[in-house]
Specification:
- The complex is a heterodimer.
- Helix content of chain A is about 0%, strand content about 55%.
- Chain A is built from no helices and eleven strands.
- In chain A, the strands form two sheets. In chain A, strands 2, 4, 5, 6, 9, 10 and 11 form a seven-stranded mixed sheet that branches.
- Chain B is mainly β.
- Chain B is about 0% helix and about 55% strand.
- In chain B, strands 2, 4, 5, 9, 10 and 11 form a six-stranded mixed sheet that branches. Chain B has a five-stranded antiparallel sheet with strand order 1-3-8-7-6, with no helix packed on it.
- The N and C termini of chain B lie far apart (about 35 Å).
- The chains are: A mainly beta, B mainly beta.
- At the A-B interface, strand 4, strand 5, strand 9 and strand 10 of A face strand 5 of B.
Amino acid sequence: SQTIHQWPATLVQPVGSPLSLECTVEGTSNPNLYWYRQAAGRGLQLLFYSVGIGQISSEVPQNLSASRPQDRQFILSSKKLLLSDSGFYLCAWSPQGYYGYTFGSGTRLTVV
Amino acid sequence: RKEVEQDPGPFNVPEGATVAFNCTYSNSASQSFFWYRQDCRKEPKLLMSVYSSGNEDGRFTAQLNRASQYISLLIRDSKLSDSATYLCVVSASWGKLQFGAGTQVVVTP
């Protein structure tokens, strides 16, 4: 069966520090991968999505970047965090051609 | 205008009662529709897909009205464990989903 792993679960980082969140999927190949952010009391905002290795599409210009160095690995990064980067970051995957997403357990990031 | 709009609630429901709520979407080209459930401080989980003819999954019934561009979810015989935020989800362009901000349901004893 397919599983998605996301870590760390919680993170407290100072303003201006770098960020790296990792997501991996097991049990499938060539998945579509997504990074979402959910601010407190808000809906999910799509940040990046990827249809294959090295293929990244950005939805919203911001202080973040994403990379997909391997088929089932998706990384969210920032060189310098802002207070506004705080939120609940969720990685998700779906099979090619199917819209149903499965989410990882999320990373709760607090920038202080 | 938001692409997917939901009444944030909360809908306070006595245990055993029925609750229903809608969401509206703006993209008339959307083809796929879902309801997700999100528990407090947890990731969203797929509750059910929504089909054009309407569909049931146990105590949950989903309806789609393409002409009016709204989706509904009905929960019968509410359980305490149904307390959660329900996210309305609509396909956007390729492979991407638009999420509503969610409707909070609180089932009380």
